[in-house]
Amino acid sequence: MKKNIKSILITGGTSGLGLSISRLFLEKKYKVIITGTSVTSINKATKALEKQIKKNKNCYFIKYKATDRTSVNKLFKNYLKYSKKINVLINNAGNNGEVGIFKKNNISKWEKSIFTNLTSHVAITKKFLPIFEIKNNHGVIINISGGGATKPMPGFTSYAAAKTGLSRFTETLAVELQKDNFYCYSLAPGFMKTNIHKLVFSNRKKLDKKVFLDIEKNYKQGGFDSYLAAEACYKLVQNKNKKISGMHLSAIYDDIKKITKKTNSSNVYKLRRIDDMFFREK
Predict the structure, then answer these.
(1) N or C terminus: fewer CB in 10 A for the chain?
(2) E-state strands within the chain
(3) Rounded (to 5) percent helix, strand, coil in the chain
(4) Which residue has the higher pLDDT, 127 or 222?
(5) Which domains are delineated in the chain?
(6) What is the pLDDT of residues 158-189, one digit of tens each?
């Protein structure tokens, strides 16, 4: 085994976007540690990644479901069985949260969604920060955000609140770690036809008709290829321009390679209030 092989943790890496990210980093010869919520999902991913695993044996799976802080502590303990260091953390695990208009939401389910989509990522980041290998390399943290961070999403208040919080957490963490060898990003992957939308279809009656029809239309059209977002993650991992650390980027609409090569304003690709004093629409 190569001593300098880099390690990456991908939460929710057994299906959808996470599976595409796992596949790409296996091909790039990383030691890839993947979480899945069940033995079934892990078995399916093992089969789906069979070709890549044959060429790169450094692939390991951990059963993990974001339920509480105990689950995060257990994840960290199990991770250390496979690697004592980490180079890249991709917080990808998530769901659509409590679906339906807020006044009819179950607040307990709403809070659980906030843990799954926000707090668990924060807790994982906190837990893994001390073992990042940054002496001779740079550490990378990518939080998978989404459209809920930049626009209101009626019927998905918990999801939108969590994704907005995740983007703000990412930028703030980037500022705190700017003197260290860390790069932090939040990435919006675009609409993809994955299992995350099953909850939407089973709760269609709880959603505004237009909101549901827009989601159904995108789903039937197939959405964007998850590999585009996986490639965006890899480009960000390769980036050496620290000025883009903290940005909220789109895997679909942003030319990440171009962005990494130019000098950007400290305010672009970030959450800001547009007003008549500091930030104006063109």
Answers:
(1) C
(2) 7-10, 31-36, 59-63, 88-91, 139-144, 182-188, 248-250
(3) 45, 15, 40
(4) 127
(5) 7-259 (3.40.50.720)
(6) 999 999 999 999 999 999 998 899 999 999 99
Predicted TM-score (pTM) of the model is 0.93
- CA 81/CA 24 separation, integer angstroms: 23
Taking the C-alpha atoms of residue 24 and residue 199, their distance in angstroms, rounded to an integer, is: 28
Give the separation between CA 75 and CA 63, rounded to whole angstroms: 8
| Other C-beta atoms lying within 10 Å of the C-beta of residue 190 | 20
Residues, the chain: 282
Nearest to 14 by CA among 225, 224, 196, 143: 196
Instruction: Please say whether the beta carbons of 146 and 134 come within 8 A.
Output: no
Alpha-carbon gap, residue 233 to 25, rounded angstroms: 10
In contact, 34 and 62? CB cutoff 8 Å? yes
- d(C-alpha 98, C-alpha 40), whole Å: 24
- Token pair listed for 178: 């700017």
Structure confidence by residue, pLDDT tens digits, 229-249:
999 999 999 998 888 999 999
CB 272 within 8 A of CB 149: no
Selection from 196, 195, 182, 141 nearest residue 9 by Cα: 141
Query: Phi and psi at residue 228, in whole multiples of 5°?
Result: -65, -45
For residues 103 and 76, the answer to whether their CB atoms sit within 8 Å is no
Alpha carbons 25 and 19: distance in angstroms, whole number? 10
